[in-house]
Amino acid sequence: MPNGVTNSYSAVFDLNMLAYKVRQEKSDWIGFASSAASMGLILLAGRLVDCFRRPRMAALSTGLLIMSTVSFVWFTLICELPGLRTTLGLYLGNVLGIAAQTATTPLFFEMACESAFPVGEETTTMVVTACSNVFSALFLTALFFPQMGTRWMNYASTGSCLLAVPLVLRFREVYRRREYDLLATESSGASVQA
């Protein structure tokens, strides 16, 4: 859910910012900074998961979703209360929210593949992508109703991350594929030594 909503939110971010009297050029640079920060945080999150023998992808995803939720709440307050609005605040709120949420994407795919094993990765990722696209389509469909305006977009991004937190907290991590790979590695190492 947060992947689909936030990806669509990023695509129409400049429309959202027009409602708050933020120029398109500034909103474009905020979007660029969000994309750049997302790439860096994705690499950092992947490295953190790889550092542990028993990865804790759900815990890291929960932390990132909480960070994203707090950032989006902050960003929404900055947008809604003009007295709080600063360029730095707009940048930090959006960049942290988008980057933290985007960093969960590969973790969600990996958790899904681990949990669904021995179902093929292509099938699992297709289902996760389809679910994400449903939420993305719902978000974008709302734009067909101009009477709704665009202020709801900040609340939708905040809400999607917030709603995902209890779902990820309840998720029971299993590492069937990883255990299978480790067993296969150990058995092939034993046969080479014999």
From TrEMBL:
<dbReference type="InterPro" id="IPR049680">
    <property type="entry name" value="FLVCR1-2_SLC49-like"/>
</dbReference>
<feature type="transmembrane region" description="Helical">
    <location>
        <begin position="58"/>
        <end position="78"/>
    </location>
</feature>
<dbReference type="GO" id="GO:0016020">
    <property type="term" value="C:membrane"/>
</dbReference>
<feature type="transmembrane region" description="Helical">
    <location>
        <begin position="90"/>
        <end position="113"/>
    </location>
</feature>
<protein>
    <recommendedName>
        <fullName>MFS domain-containing protein</fullName>
    </recommendedName>
</protein>
<keyword id="KW-0812">Transmembrane</keyword>
<keyword id="KW-1133">Transmembrane helix</keyword>
<keyword id="KW-0472">Membrane</keyword>
<dbReference type="InterPro" id="IPR036259">
    <property type="entry name" value="MFS_trans_sf"/>
</dbReference>
<feature type="transmembrane region" description="Helical">
    <location>
        <begin position="29"/>
        <end position="46"/>
    </location>
</feature>
<feature type="transmembrane region" description="Helical">
    <location>
        <begin position="125"/>
        <end position="146"/>
    </location>
</feature>
